Amino acid sequence: MPTATLADHIDALLPQTQCTKCGYEGCRPYAAAIAHGEADINRCPPGGESGVRALAALLGTPSLPLDTSRGTPGPLTVAVIDETHCIGCTLCIDACPVDAIVGTAKRMHTVVEALCTGCDLCVAPCPVDCIVMVPSGRDWTTDDARRSRDRHERRARRLQEDGGTTGRRADRREPAGGHPAPAASVNAGPAPMPATLRPAEPAPEDAAARRRAAIDDALARARARRLATPK
Question: 4Fe-4S ferredoxin-type domain spans which residues (predicted)?
């Protein structure tokens, strides 16, 4: 099979969270590295053990234990920005690989939950520690993966057209792709996605209350960390 075609087939099996935990700048570069024999098939925590087995079956090679030094699989999570502490620095906007964060300089930013992949790449750059990852209450689906791939590719093209600059725009009130910005000032965001890609099932009736409690708890812990940090 031609290498380019093989990379396409490999990429189709990856979850498309674009989390970079594999050591590559996204799912497609990792797929290309596998196709060229430059990377093992067990470096994708979001894909989990089932993802490793799927890649092994495609390539006709023995399966490998998941490399947990790169992270462990778990339920899908999303990012939440604490509006009371966001300073509008835009660093999280620059970090998001799928343009799922909207906002503008010196204004509060918001995560578009439906677009968040749970990569958590926005957490570390935040200078005021106001982003937390919380359970999404749903599964990551094949439609999510397809949309994430498309948005990541559009972002890459935009950055190339902008001369390789960061993801920052003069005004990012609406995410790329015309997805309307949410009305709420704070949105639940991403986190590690499940080990398998399967249609999401309806959440229990009390899921919203549990999720709200999880968000409140995560934000409280983030505030406690800020208070404990020496000035």
Answer: 77-106, 107-136
- The residue count of the chain comes to 231
Residue-wise pLDDT for 117-130, tens only, equals: 999 999 999 999 99
We find that the CATH architecture of domain 3-70 is Orthogonal Bundle (1.10)
What is the torsion angle, in degrees rounded to the nearest 10, for the CA atoms of residue 197, residue 18, residue 23 and residue 12? 50
Whether the CA torsion 156, 161, 167, 169 is positive or negative: it is negative
Q: b vs e for 137-151, b when ≥16 Cβ sit within 10 Å of the residue's Cβ?
A: bbbbbeebbebbbeb
E strand or H helix at 81: strand 77-81
- Tokens of residue 154, six digits: 């559009």
Write down the pTM of the prediction.
0.73
In whole angstroms, give the CA distance from residue 152 to residue 27.
Answer: 10
In tens, the pLDDT along 29-39 reads: 999 999 999 99
As assigned by CATH, the class of the 77-228 domain is alpha beta
Look at the block and give the residue holding tokens 């599964």: 139
DSSP 101-139: EEB-TTS--EE-GGG-----TTTTT-TT--EEEEE-SS-
Confidence at 162, pLDDT banded by 50, 70, 90: confident
Using an 8 Å Cβ cutoff, are 12 and 41 in contact?
no
